[in-house]
Amino acid sequence: MDKHINKIGVQSTEVNSESIFFNPEVDGSDTVAVVSAGIVVVGTILTAFASFVNPGVVLISFGTLAPVLWPDPEEDPKKIWSQFMKHGEDLLNQTISTAVKEIALAHLNGFKDVLTYYERAFNDWKRNPSANTARLVSQRFENAHFNFVSNMPQLQLPTYDTLLLSCYTEAANLHLNLLHQGVQFADQWNADQPHSPMLKSSGTYYDELLVYIEKYINYCTKTYHKGLNHLKESEKITWDAYNTYRREMTLIVLDLVATFPFYDIRRFPRGVELELTREVYTSLDPPGLNAGPIPEIDFSYLEDHLTRPPGLFTWLSDIELYTESVAEGDYLSGIRESKYYTGNQFFTMKNIYGNTNRLSKQLITLLPGEFITHLSINRGFQTIAGINKLYSLIQKIVFTTFKNDNEYQKNFNVNNQNEPQETTNYPNDYGGSNSQKFKHNLSHFPLIIHKLEFAEYFHSIFALGWTHNSVNSQNLISESVSTQIPLVKAYEVTNNSVIRGPGFTGGDLIELRDKCSIKCKASSLKKYAISLFYAANNAIAVSIDVGDSGAGVLLQPTFSRKGNNNFTIQDLNYKDFQYHTLLVDIELPESEEIHIHLKREDDYEEGVILLIDKLEFKPIDENYTNEMNLEKAKKAVNVLFINATNALKMDVTDYHIDQVANLVECISDDLYAKEKIKLLHAIKFAKQLSQARNLLSDPNFNNLNAENSWTANTGVTIIEGDPLYKGRAIQLSAARDENFPTYLYQKIDESLLKPYTRYQLRGFVEGSQDLELDLVRYGATDIVMNVPGDLEILSYSAPINPCEEIETRLDTTCGALDRCKQSNYVNSAADVRPDQVNGDPHAFSFHIDTGTTDNNRNLGIWIIFKIATPDGYATFGNLELIELGPLSGEALAQVQRKEQKWGKNTTQKREEAAKLYAAAKQTINQLFADSQGTKLRFDTEFSNILSADKLVYKIRDVYSEVLSVIPGLNYDLFMELENRIQNAIDLYDARNTVTNGEFRNGLANWMASSNTEVRQIQDTSVLVLSSWNAQVAQSLNVKPDHGYVLRVTAKKEGIGNGYVTILDCANHIDTLTFSSCDSGFTTSSNELAAYVTKTLEIFPDTDQIRIEIGETEGTFYVESVDLIRMED
Questions:
Q1: Is the pLDDT of residue 357 over 60?
Q2: CATH 2.60.200.30 correct for 1-20+282-299+309-473
């Protein structure tokens, strides 16, 4: 025997799942009391949540928790709270001043008083609902609530926050439980006292409940980490001290905080089953290891070897224990433990600790569903110089297991030692032997073999790991309440993606980098909605497969911090996690294993984080549907506004507001009339704000082609009753060809625009092909939208009458469309944040910037939609043009460059147009006999007018390049000249006795033989006679005794002559003859090559004359025939 060993003895140590957390050598009665109280409170709340199926019943009465926190009213009522404070002082080796302690205890006892008074009034109201009892319970509730709001800050003083954290957390739980009841019953109290003013509603208390859930979770979690980090950074900190704080504050604080989110009664109106998957560790075993001169074992070494890194949740299937003999007895030399993932018990993993090569071993096997909840260890001890006792020799370990409400014992025996036995008992079971709901299960049995430096002595060290009994070994899904299954209970995950939780989730998290698989089992055949509780710093696509069903979703970012070296999970707050529904109305078979696969569809990128905490399964029934409709509508309405203000978020589109309005209108009037009215007011206000900021005129298409509205042609149709639109939408049909497009356009007046500002055009396209959108200011921004018409309209429920069997969504012959029965884009869109425009092919958003503004120039913004192809089509609506804000930086510089370039080009175009305008104007002036343009010069021929018109048409940029019906840069100049040309034509027509003498209308008003025609030659209509028997004639009425001038512009080709003969009823005949030799004559010539103009004066004797045109042979071209009466 080593000289340092003075005595060998025996100790019997009992370790059970209630007392595993206390070390009899260092923990006093205060520790036992407070940790026991914390465990009981958590167990009580977990049980209450799981059984809360009747919303008319209180979740947890104050009378249930009071005996735990104020156990004996006959003794000191502050006893347990004083023990909480003493426990905090011991853990952190600090002291709370007497004054602070007394103030805190006074407030804590005050909480008991106000809660007691409230509960008495509540019970009176329950027994006898009346105005008086309702008034009293309302007053006492508000008094209790005010007491918490006012006095909770006294428990979070900066100097003592970590020491008072246990008290704060327990008090916070009492406050949340109180607010939970306020949400439940406030409206009923108000209904029983209808004439009482200024009463808070259930909705008001619900808003406050959400605020305090978030506040308490964040504060408790941050303060816990503050205390833990303080210990870790302390000098000479031992692993036992660090682990004791982590273990006991997890049991008292973090376990309780993990239940806080489920006080949200509107999200969990029928209760919830939740699980705590965190793992806690006992103190070092054997006790007294670090006493006396034995050197302290390295902190990091113990942490690395006695605790597990984050990983999937495991279950023990067997433990094989190995011993080795030394002179003094046997010590535990090795352990091999087998574990399996949830639902995968046929595939086990083995962990080996110490030396397992020895022959002395024994296997402890656990059946499926059997768990170790208790163990007792009989040890031999040695007294070594400077050390009282070192319990390192193992004699016997008794494992108590629990399965199907029965307890069993399995023994591990070592050769008995005939030495005196010394027994040290851990604290007795506080909850009784049947308190299974408060128990823990052994989950980890790590072992370290350690050799004392001053003695030839090996001994084993271990710290047992335990998990909470709330964890279900089958991932069983409840048929009556919501079931929260932590994703760390998966059986497969790739890419090393399990990380430590932030503290308020009850366990570790999955960082989904690739895929994850989990098995679940439904307790009965039922339909469920499956949701995900997650956090992400970017939009990430995820797919889920549940048996034969599946879906793909785009998870939206919930926080903005990037994953880098400075980011830790502790940086996340409660609100950084959100729920997202993956599947709705999915039927799960009874008692069958269901494989659920989650996959990240994008390529994992470092720093783009997706953290998943839990899968949620909510049973679907009528109540669930109504409740979800309400909660979905509330969430959708709240996200429209900026931080509970009356300002609309910039990224909220008009279409999104309409779809949220559909959600609100689908809320049950019978169950939630008040909430519905409140939400309707909010959504109507949002719509008003949307309309007020929309710069478009007539965005609802009420008056097409009216003043201050849209301009459209005949291919545009207004549609109503489309399930995808709450208001009117517009439909553009195919074009005949590119020269005759279907169009819709509007100009935003310059007076509505601000300088150097960005504007955004937004809308929603149901489907389109070749839809062109142009935003025009400094040139056109041409955009083509081909949007698939893939928005299906599916009914959630079976039709209840024939009129609901609408075969096409535009069929409204059976009455108004019931949008509440549709699961179209409307409902899915309202469940996401409204800034998804860029990620949705149906929702478009394009911007246009202004530079300087000039109301006189009135450049404005043109918005043009058109279809220019025979196969094109489009249906769209909810158009809006909104101001985004002033430009800066590169955007400002870019619009300045664009405006400058546009200005130079415009100036150049105007200068060119001015020259052409001057030349055309001069030519036009020569057509008229006076400056007022009331009379043509006598020698003005029609060809002169055409020549002048050609000069006018040399002016460019008369119409928009985008759409030819829209005026362009030089439109005004062009129209001024073109109006004068038209005036000249009108005057010309008025003085010409011959009708259609210029053949602009073909052979109308002429009698012509079949072998004559009118051709377009150099943009001029010309009569062509190419046969000797061709003849064209017209009879005219004239005034006798007046002189007329017959003027003909024509050309003869080939041999023979062409002639124009005029004759009256008195057989007076005059003829103008043309031949191919006329081009050499000195008669006035036309711009058409070789055309000549000849005139003839006549004085008819009768009131009718006849003009005949013919030829002898060859071809005769006649450009115009004029008969002009001579002036007096």
A1: yes
A2: no
Residue 387 has pLDDT above 70, yes or no: no
Q: What is the pLDDT of residues 577-614, one digit of tens each?
A: 999 989 888 889 888 899 999 999 988 888 899 999 99
Give the CATH fold of the 476-620 domain.
Answer: Jelly Rolls (2.60.120)
Q: How far is CA 818 from CA 118, 523, 623, in A?
A: 45, 35, 20
The answer to whether residues 1031 and 1044 touch, using CB atoms and an 8 Å cutoff, is no
CATH superfamily of 642-830+858-887: Galactose-binding domain-like (2.60.120.260)
Instruction: Give per-residue pLDDT as tens, 79-117.
Output: 899 999 999 999 999 999 999 999 999 999 999 999 999
Of 322-331, 428-437, 679-688, 732-741, which range is least confident?
A: 428-437
3-state class of 338 per DSSP?
A: strand
Strand-pairing partners, residue 1021, are: 1016
Percent pLDDT > 90 in the chain is 57
d(CA 739, CA 735): 9
Copy the structure tokens of residue 920: 């055309």
* Contact call for residues 638 and 685 (beta carbons, < 8 A): no
Entry field: residues in the chain: 1128
Count Cα neighbours of 835 within 13 Å in the Cβ-side half-sphere.
Answer: 12
Closest C-alpha among 463, 343, 465, 316 to residue 401: 316
Average pLDDT across the chain, whole number: 85
Report the phi/psi class of residue 65: left, alpha or beta, with left for phi > 0 and alpha for psi in -120 to 50.
alpha
| Those residues with Cβ within 8 angstroms of residue 105's Cβ, 6 or more apart along the chain or in another chain | 78, 81, 82, 85
Q: Using CA atoms, how far apart are residues 777 and 758, in angstroms rounded to an integer? A: 12
How many angstroms separate the CA atoms of 379 and 288, rounded?
Answer: 13
DSSP per residue over 440-500, as a string? Answer: EEEEE---EEEE-TTSS-EEEEB--EEEETTS-TT-EEPSSSEEEEEGGG-SEE-SS-EE-
pLDDT at 846 over 90: yes
813 CB burial (10 A radius; 0-12, 13-18, 19+): exposed
Residue 757, pLDDT above cutoff 90 = yes
Cβ neighbours of 751 (radius 10 Å):
9
679/514 Cα distance (integer angstroms): 40
List C-alpha distances in Å: 177 to 9, 182, 269, 529.
52, 9, 14, 27
pLDDT value at 430 more than 80: no
- State both tokens at 331: 């010590």
For residue 486, pLDDT beyond 60: yes
Phi (first) and psi of residue 754, to 5 degrees: -110, 150
Task: Answer for the pair 271, 49: CB distance below 8 angstroms, yes or no.
Answer: yes
What is the C-alpha radius of gyration for the chain, rounded to an integer number of angstroms?
46
Burial of 18 (0-12, 13-18, 19+ CB in 10 A): buried
The residue behind tokens 């080009």 is 905
Torsion angle, alpha carbons of 416, 418, 421, 426, to 10: -10
User: Is CATH 2.60.120.260 what the domain over 1007-1125 is classified as, yes or no?
Assistant: yes
1092 has a pLDDT exceeding 70:
yes
What pLDDT score was predicted for residue 1101? 85
Residue 774 phi, psi (nearest 5):
-125, 125
Contact 342, 313 (CB under 8 A): yes
Contact between 908 and 917 (Cβ < 8 Å):
no
User: How many Å apart are CA 48 and CA 811, to the nearest integer?
Assistant: 50
Q: Give yes or no for residue 384 having a pLDDT over 60.
A: no
- pLDDT tens, residue by residue, 511-524: 999 999 999 999 88
Q: What are phi and psi of 331, to 5 degrees?
A: -125, 155
Provide the CATH number for the domain formed by 24-269 in this structure: 1.20.190.10
